[in-house]
Specification:
Layout: H1 5-11, H2 20-25, H3 27-37, E1 49-57, E2 60-68, E3 78-82, H4 98-108, E4 112-115, H5 129-143, E5 155-160, H6 162-176, E6 184-188, H7 200-210, H8 217-228, E7 248-256, H9 260-273, E8 277-286, H10 297-310
Parallel strand pairs: 3-4, 3-5, 5-6, 6-7, 7-8
Antiparallel strand pairs: 1-2, 2-4
Helix pairs in contact: 4-10, 5-6
Pfam family, one: Abhydrolase_3
Keywords: Hydrolase
Protein name: Esterase
């Protein structure tokens, strides 16, 4: 389907510019641009029991946020959910983290733990700090499942964009160490490869829909530089890793996203490795749609799809 009208209308503000850089160069037009892309209306997220905790990791204490449904079916897994933001941005308070966690917990009965990992800056905070923090929180959840009333409860792991990268890096480390893997892995518009994967089939549609907002290799390089600072970082991407033994995985891609081809290649590689892999295309959506207003129907539909996948883990 075409780019959802809600997002297509927001793109119109860019029609008078030759580049995003040009639009951002003038404070007045930069303000206009920011306002145009901001969601001015949304719905109130569901409420329930939310509490913060601190987990000790190899890279110091990390804040986590626990979302606990009023009743939890013993067969429902606890889900570790990692926000995105290009390794250098985002927070556990953003809709992609907090609202998604609330929806999964209080609409669908899935207990969720979100991770306030350290944001990379290319100098003092780089790989392996965020990687180890997320991997150790995953271990903490795995080893404390009795907090949710069932020691035998499965645990699952997932993330969005750069958070999906951190989730996959955790699975790679756990697998290398011979540790118990998550029962399922849920990746949403994931950033998994250091090089943008280009799809000839999708190129024209992406350019027509996204125009000046398309992601390019320079931006991807910048994000990975902030994350790894050029250091050896074996768990910073899926490049060079075989995917044998990976858990059951749902890869959710946004239809109009330059990372979509990478997610689809990863899905195909999972299938080739013998994994139980599913692919879901969020129709009409750009990258980052879980962070946007719930007045766009596919945003809520995507969360419903996530819940259905998790409750079958």
């Amino acid at each position: 389907m075409p780019l959802d009208p809600y997002f297509a209308n927001k793109m119109k503000v860019l029609e008078k510019f030759d580049s995003v850089a040009e639009a951002m160069a003038d404070p007045e037009t930069a303000k206009e641009l920011a306002q145009a892309f901001k969601d001015t209306e949304t719905t109130e997220p569901p409420s329930g029991e939310v509490r913060d905790a601190v987990v000790d990791t190899r890279e110091g204490p990390v804040n986590v946020r626990l979302y606990t449904p009023e009743t939890v079916d013993p067969s429902t897994p606890v889900f570790v959910w990692v926000h995105g933001g290009g390794f250098a941005g985002g927070s556990i308070g953003m809709p992609e983290s907090d609202t998604v966690a609330r929806e999964l917990a209080f609409l669908y009965g899935v207990p969720v733990v979100t991770v306030d990992y350290a944001l990379s800056n290319g100098t003092t905070i780089t790989y392996p700090v965020p990687h180890r923090q997320v991997a150790d929180v995953v271990r903490w959840v795995r080893d404390h499942r009795d907090q949710w009333g069932a020691p035998e409860r499965a645990y699952c792991l997932g993330g969005a964009s750069a958070g999906a990268n951190l989730a996959v890096g955790s699975v790679l480390e756990l697998r290398e160490n011979g540790e118990e893997l998550p029962a399922a892995l849920l990746l949403v518009y994931p950033m998994l490869h250091r090089e943008l994967v280009v799809s000839d089939t999708l190129e024209t549609g992406l350019s027509e829909a996204l125009g000046l907002t398309r992601m390019n290799q320079g931006l991807v390089d910048h994000m990975f530089t902030l994350y790894t600072a050029g250091k050896d970082a074996p768990f910073a991407s899926v490049d060079g890793h075989d995917l044998a033994g990976f858990p059951r995985t749902l890869t959710m891609v946004s239809e109009y996203d330059d990372l979509r081809p990478s997610g689809e290649v990863f899905h195909d590689d999972l299938l080739a490795s013998g994994a139980d892999a599913q692919l879901y295309v969020a129709e009409g959506m750009p990258h980052g749609h879980l962070d946007r207003t719930r007045l766009v129907p596919e945003v809520g539909q995507s969360v419903k799809q996530m819940a259905e996948f998790l409750t079958k883990a």
